[in-house]
Amino acid sequence: MNTEGDVDSDMECSDNECFGDDSDYYNTDDIDIEQVDPSKNDPEYFEFECLTEEQVERLLNESVELLSNNLQILPSLAKVLLHYHNWNVSEIIGKYRENASQLLINSRVKPSSAPASNNCSRYLTCPVCVLTHSSDKFLSLNCGHLFCKGCWTIHFEVQINQGISTGISCMARECEVLVPEDFVLKLVLQPNIKEKYLQYIFQDYVKSHPQLRFCPGPNCQVVIKSQDTKAKRATCSKCKSIFCFKCGIDYHAPTDCHTIQKWLTKCADDSETANYISAHTKDCPKCHICIEKNGGCNHMQCYNCKYDFCWMCLGDWKAHGSEYYECSRYKENPNIAHESVHAQAREALKKYLHYYERWENHLKSLKLEKETFDKLKTRINQKVMSGRGTWIDWQYLFTAASLLAKCRYTLQYTYPYAYYMDTGPRKELFEYQQAQLEAEIENLSWKIERAETTDRGDLENQMDIAEKRRTTLLKDFLDV
Asked: Per the record, which residues fall in region Disordered (predicted)?
């Protein structure tokens, strides 16, 4: 079984691989900060297993066998019942004991019957192809709707080619009785169609199982299994993809699954409106010379006048050393309810752009810090070659850069959370902690870009502070 610690140990990477993709943002094995029991102190702690298809098949078959033996039904019927009831064996057995027939009706499934060879007529007309065949050429489910084998086969092939497997039902009008797996496999003989069906039905089984989740990595066949079905961070042991176990998209703590879906939809819908804020250049607020942001840190220093300012709000950086990091907080208009409709629309857009700009900025900062990481390797190589320490002496910088990305990743997802929060004391607390985290992240970023070997103690102290800020925020607001 993989725990979060097990997964992280699998994620150790060479210097050339680090920061290669989002999975490396959580590669913090070597961080020299206080190590504690993650199950008690880490709000993102998550126990899970990475399974192969063969292991998943065995897992599913155990449930099928258990249900089949308990209810004395065919395995194919047990599979349909399990799929329909989200693989809850105890629930199915309980319902069956209460009312067996009602369970089958509610599940829209009935056991398949034998060929209608004992029909009183030796010949029957198929209601689909309107051709007459001998009665042994007909099959039906227990609903009693008879169709010839040829029409059943064509029906199955059409459905499978459309990506349907567990949802295949009887051909009769308004009949919703589902077709068991063995009934389909008995009639579908083309190897490619049969392979498609088995692939689709396996996918449907996994998707309906609350403890299983396909890894979303490209061409990855790993299935993640966990008893804990909450929105926690899962990491694939094979492709290193990091995702939310509950919804399957990029990990998004502290924002919950429903909120991040709303946010991403809104960003997609309003992307053209927000395009104007995505430029990489701004004017220095003091000398007004054009400055390009080429690093992840938001603490900017004008190369012309040496003025230190914040990239986000263009305010004096000295003011950001205060306890409350104001530029991350949106100031609501207290009188907006009494304004005109147009004024309210402008205020709504202003609020959205405030959070979107910060969301987008941290996304860009993460990308820029990958470039910073490459520059860091070059700078360290030069120092080692000139005799200013060994490669091992400088490893702490790579650890710091990895932690920085981990913290900035969390910070990025605090903005959708804040955007949808109701105004009140809880939001004020959240924005306070968000501001503190942001301030410590920018301090860490600034120090990493300028660190020397003599700065190791100071940098590791800053790493410890930043990680504790991140963990505190998640403990207080990670609602899973």
From this structure: 1-21
Task: Identify whether 239 is a catalytic site residue.
Answer: no
Q: Does residue 359 sit in the same domain as residue 444?
A: yes
Q: Are 77 and 180 in contact (CB under 8 A)?
A: yes
pLDDT digit string, tens, across residues 49-74: 999 999 999 999 999 999 999 988 89
Residue 133's domain comprises 53-207
Same domain, residue pair 135 and 261: no
362-367: Cβ within 8 A, 24+ apart: 362/408, 362/411, 362/412, 362/415, 363/412, 364/280, 364/293, 365/296, 365/297, 365/298, 365/408, 365/445, 366/25, 366/296, 366/405, 366/408, 366/409, 366/412
User: Is residue 141 a part of any domain in this protein?
Assistant: yes
Across 76-220, the runs of DSSP E, i.e. the strands, are: 123-125, 132-134, 138-139, 147-148, 212-214
- Tens of pLDDT, residue by residue over 34-44, are 444 555 678 88
Task: Name 326's Cβ contacts closer than 8 Å, sequence gap at least 6.
Answer: 313, 319, 435
317 found inside a domain: no
Name 319's Cβ contacts closer than 8 Å, sequence gap at least 6.
326
286 in a structural domain:
no
Domain containing residue 155: CATH number: 3.30.40.10
Preceding omega of 191 cis (within 30 degrees of 0):
no
Assess whether 445 and 345 both reside in one domain.
yes
Q: Are residues 231 and 337 in the same domain?
A: no
Instruction: Specify whether the CB–CB gap between 199 and 25 falls below 8 A.
Output: no
Name the H helices within 237-323.
Answer: 257-269, 271-274
DSSP H or E stretch at residue 310: strand 308-310
Q: Does residue 313 have a pLDDT over 60? A: yes
**98 in a structural domain:** yes
This prediction has a pTM of: 0.70
* Distance between CA atoms of residues 213 and 201, nearest Å: 15
341 and 381 both lie in a single domain? yes
